[in-house]
What we know:
ten-stranded mixed beta sheet; 34% strand; BirA Bifunctional Protein, domain 2; aa-tRNA-synth_II/BPL/LPL
Amino acid sequence: xxxxxxxxxxxxxxxxxxxxxxxxxxxxxxxxxxxxxxxxxxxxxxxxxxxxxxxxxxxxxxxxxxxxxxxxxxxxxxxxxxxxxxxxxxxxxxxxxxxxxxxxxxxxxxxxxxxxxxxxxxxxxxxxxxxxxxxxxxxxxxxxxxxxxxxxxxxxxxxxxxxxxxxxxxxxxxxxxxxxxxxxxxxxxxxxxxxxxxxxxxxxxxxxxxxxxxxxxxxxxxxxxxxxxxxxxxxxxxxxxxxxxxxxxxxxxxxxxxxxxxxxxxxxxxxxxxxxxxxxxxxxxxxxxxxxxxxxxxxxxxxxxxxx
Length: 308
């Protein structure tokens, strides 16, 4: 079940956005909110977009924002429902998500205290696709540090979860499709900003949470990610590797690895990431283990690595 879907677009990108809107083959109706009519405070959409645009400072990412008060899934809409594919930089954002998508067949409902959004981007090197989730996870951590430079308890759990004081508060999902020689990637982010129950949230662990809103955090995320993504497309993940490993939970973590359900778990120690984004672990006999993020899962609390 979804409410009215509207969008706001910077004047510079209006021609491309209008062309895409006219080409839509889905039955979804989009209402464009004119930029010069924003900030009037007349309705909730104006108030939401006013704060977002006041914070946003990007060339492309987030300059076209699809907004809906309630949506089944931002990821489903941007990746599957809206065809043809929305241009790069489009962000789909909702206040409340009722059928969120996760890895595999995982689903969840996101109450209003959660920030949920998805965005589109394009890449030419398929070898870098597994690393995009790492880049986005790092951007989220940098966004948290932008709000509170003293916060050190928000960290990355491999491959794509965000933890605070040992509790999951967010995650990243990347889905891609290949067309005309390029990979179109839709990336979804879910982050618990203000739901203190049943575990914890971002507002519980940062010192200046009073000004933390979904709109401001989303715009700040776009500001941080855009230059990172530009560098990533040129130089790959290597410029970000050291900082990523500083922000994750797993340095020298002792784990047990099981090849399948019937095999015996073997001890190993996590050493880092390989060049192509695999989790690098070392077995008790010194053997190297390279584990792909899409084929393995890590239970942080039990320290058990298993194939899916």
